[in-house]
Write a sequence for this structure.
């Protein structure tokens, strides 16, 4: 980057010398040319050295998602056997959420099976569409920190939610490894958790 700026300034100086000789007789034109070249150079330096906000934003969002996943893993846990699988750790987290769409309000109940927590609404909507194509009635809810919870099932009682969570886990765990599941569905299905809605 510095080399590019040095080359640009050298080229600018050559052009300036060439045009200054033409403007020797007209002092006003010479001054205008020098000022315009200085402004051009300054604007180039300012815009080329500006940090890219999108790069910072994507890194920040990824870190925020990891932080939320860590927080959900540290919450209240219950161990329940799941069919032929070894005992599955079921994480239950309490938080206040609101449906993203008014049409989902009636379907959002007390205990919810969350397959993903995402910071970008577009990503949450994309996952919602994929899971709807799989036959689930998906609800998008947002917590007070702005994270989008992708909910694939909602119940009035905890036992039904845990049972559905285990059923989903078992269904997708036999389809392949977490890398395959992430590529195919957008989530690995190994970190499903129960959201207990607070009002």
């Amino acid at each position: 980057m510095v080399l590019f700026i040095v080359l640009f300034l050298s080229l600018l100086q050559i052009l300036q010398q060439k045009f200054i000789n033409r403007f020797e007789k007209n002092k006003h034109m010479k001054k205008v040319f020098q000022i315009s070249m200085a402004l051009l150079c300054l604007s180039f330096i300012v815009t080329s050295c500006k940090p890219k906000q999108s790069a910072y934003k994507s890194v920040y969002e990824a870190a925020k998602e990891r932080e939320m996943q860590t927080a959900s893993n540290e919450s209240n846990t219950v161990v329940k056997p799941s069919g032929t699988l070894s005992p599955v750790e079921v994480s239950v987290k309490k938080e206040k959420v609101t449906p993203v769409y008014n049409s989902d309000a009636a379907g959002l109940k007390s205990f919810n099976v969350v397959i993903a927590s995402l910071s970008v609404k577009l990503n949450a909507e994309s996952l919602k569409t994929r899971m709807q194509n799989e036959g689930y009635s998906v609800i998008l809810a947002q917590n007070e920190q702005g994270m989008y919870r992708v909910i694939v099932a909602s119940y009035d009682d905890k036992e039904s939610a845990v049972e559905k969570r285990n059923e989903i886990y078992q269904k997708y765990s036999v389809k392949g490894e977490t890398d395959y599941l992430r590529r195919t569905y957008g989530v690995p299905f190994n970190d499903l958790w129960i959201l207990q809605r607070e009002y």
